[in-house]
Amino acid sequence: MSSLNPKTYEATPSIRVAFLGLGVMGYPMAGHLALAGHQVTVYNRSAAKSQAFAKEFAQCKVDTAATPREAAASADIVFCCVGNDDDLRSVVLGDDGAFTGMRPDTVFVDHTTASANVARELYATARARGLHFIDAPVSGGQAGAQNGVLTVMCGGDAPVFER
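^ that's the sequence the OP posted. Answer follows.
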């Protein structure tokens, strides 16, 4: 039984995305991306959560990754929704972090409710590595995530956002 409520998706070209963090918010957000037809590679600190996601969305184009780096390696856009500043730094900047695996010009979209200081730090680090960073916290809670109706507030470079 799906954790998502039924939704009609607009027809869009399929892209390769990674989703880091399959918690209360990330799991349904990644699920909506998969159901919309995108190729989704997921990473979660507990592999069991990634495996459960892959099983639930087996009818979609879904893969699991052992590290954030592996998840990000082939993605056009990397989404992240983890618990706090420390978790975010770990999955992004750690030895096997997403930024170490991302190809130049890839976009990283952070949905974590993180501090402004960390957002500025990751923006600067991404830019120095030839990557793009969008700070995109969400509002709407678990119900909004399950229903696919979150409000997303974005900060970053306008041309990157417009892609």
